[in-house]
Design the sequence.
């Protein structure tokens, strides 16, 4: 999934650009609202909310914004009724794309998502058409200064599925069901994670060797990411460093 990782790196760089900050903040605020609405406003008893708060803080969302979003979700300030939806389809070259969204208007969101797929030579499909190609997992990342041997031993003792090294980070992979147990267990062992989130990992990837196709894929993913209602986008492609450099140039 190296191509997917490269795209993730690009996304993280883009998230720091001032012009994108409003969109990024909106996404985190929605997750805070929905998490508080579903599990209550106390992060000590609401693991999803606690994770959302940590991600929002890491992204630079001000504490006042975090507090207001939680209050909205708890009903203190009239929260919007966001609905969690998924969309599935194919980008150019047959690349599978899975989209997670939160919206207060499903017709608007569906229309926009469909138009993006069409514009960039893709197609929006029926529910289930590509979802089976992605495994939903918990991923907890740690800096390279972490003692790998100790982390590995602790993670395996907590029934984590795997511990890997990628891009200067150590990643602990867990099942969705065991995610909270592993996060909290590693914290008790003294390990401080950089990120902890549920994600979708492609079972295999498609090698994209055509520059035009790669450009269409990346433009579609960028357009989806920029949409206010879209929370996460996953795809199963791999693009060589050479093509990525040409596109970035």
Sequence:
């Amino acid at each position: 999934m190296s191509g997917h990782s490269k795209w993730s790196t690009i996304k993280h760089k883009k998230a720091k650009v001032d012009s994108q900050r409003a969109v990024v903040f909106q996404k985190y605020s929605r997750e805070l609202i929905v998490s508080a609405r579903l599990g209550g406003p106390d992060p000590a008893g609401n693991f999803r909310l606690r994770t959302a708060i940590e991600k929002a803080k890491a992204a630079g969302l001000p504490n006042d914004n975090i507090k207001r979003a939680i209050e909205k979700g708890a009903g203190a300030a009239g929260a919007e009724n966001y609905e969690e939806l998924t969309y599935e389809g194919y980008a150019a070259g047959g690349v599978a794309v899975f989209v997670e969204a939160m919206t207060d208007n499903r017709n608007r969101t569906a229309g926009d998502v469909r138009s993006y797929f069409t514009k960039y030579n893709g197609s929006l499909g029926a529910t289930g058409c590509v979802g089976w190609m992605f495994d939903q997992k918990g991923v907890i990342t740690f800096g390279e200064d972490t003692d790998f041997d100790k982390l590995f031993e602790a993670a395996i003792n907590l029934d984590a599925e795997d511990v890997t090294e990628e891009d200067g980070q150590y990643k602990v992979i867990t099942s969705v069901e065991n995610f909270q147990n592993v996060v909290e267990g590693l914290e008790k062992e003294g390990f401080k994670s950089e990120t902890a989130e549920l994600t979708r990992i492609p079972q295999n990837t498609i090698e994209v060797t055509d520059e035009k196709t790669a450009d269409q894929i990346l433009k579609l993913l960028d357009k989806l990411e920029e949409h206010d209602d879209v929370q996460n986008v996953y795809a199963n492609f791999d693009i060589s460093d050479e093509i990525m450099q040409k596109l970035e140039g």
Notes: Residues 35 and 48 are 6 Å apart (CA to CA). The chain has nine helices and ten strands.
